[in-house]
Automatic annotation (TrEMBL):
The gene is adk. It comes from the Eukaryota. Pfam families: ADK. Keywords: Kinase, Nucleotide-binding, Plastid, Transferase. This is Adenylate kinase. Belongs to the adenylate kinase family. GO terms for biological process: nucleobase-containing compound metabolic process. GO terms for molecular function: ATP binding; nucleobase-containing compound kinase activity. Coiled coil: none annotated.
Length: 182
């Protein structure tokens, strides 16, 4: 089983949901940049205050800030991991590659969760998090298509990409992922 995995996909595709299931089955460290940022916001740190203003509008938080968080979590850890919601643009992907090269822990697989925009919007509206209203969701989707989707070709060129249909029940998608990894 692969030990260093990342999850790619639009907001609402179920990265967090599926990453949690896979990480607990395979005993991998689950690093969600969204969750880590929300924890900073909740704790009221200065980093959290900076992040909150951007997240509520559906903007990406600055690369430096997110990279520092990932660096802190991975640089002293030698077990398997699963990155969820990171990288989100080419700058983050290239910085991640150079960090992982230094650590001699390259990515083994990038799992792309694919779902149509209409279904993504429906799922996120029913979740109802602070940044889940329709205007902000459409903005996040726009940023995804513009900045994150180019990572599909980036990981395809490295022969690391696996595409998974993210429609259907949580269990059926988990099964597809597990089959693709076996
Ligand atoms: P994230 O926390 O990464 O959240 P997300 O993309 O909205 O959701 P995800 O795809 O994980 O969906 P989930 O499983 O929760 O990002 C939030 C914000 O943080 C960003 O907008 C940005 O501001 C900031 N941020 C995070 N990382 C960053 C980075 N690297 N750089 C800069 N900024 C960053 O599922 C969504 C909903 O669907 C849930 O309610 C779930 O229960 C439901 N669901 C899941 N699977 C389902 C299924 N099969 N059927 C029906 N519903 C399903």
């Amino acid at each position: 089983m692969k030990q260093r995995i990342l999850f790619l996909g639009p907001p609402g595709a179920g990265k967090g949901t599926q990453a949690e299931i896979l990480a607990s089955h395979e005993n991998l460290l689950h690093l969600s940049t969204g969750d880590l940022l929300r924890a900073e916001v909740k704790a009221g740190t200065s980093l959290g205050q900076e992040a909150a203003a951007l997240m509520i509008k559906g903007e990406l938080v600055s690369d430096d800030l997110v990279l520092a968080i990932v660096h802190n979590n991975l640089s002293h850890y030698s077990g398997g991991w699963l990155l969820d919601g990171f990288p989100r643009n080419i700058v983050q992907a290239e910085s991640l590659d150079s960090l992982l090269n230094q650590l001699k822990q390259p990515i083994e697989t990038a799992i792309l969760l694919k779902l149509e925009d209409d279904l993504l919007i429906e799922r996120l509206l029913s979740r109802g998090r602070a940044d889940d209203n329709e205007i902000v969701i459409r903005h996040r989707l726009g940023i995804y298509h513009e900045q994150t989707a180019p990572l599909i070709a980036f990981y395809q060129a490295k022969s690391l990409l696996i595409s998974i249909d993210a429609g259907g029940t949580v269990d059926s998608i988990a099964m597809r992922i597990s089959k693709a990894l076996s």
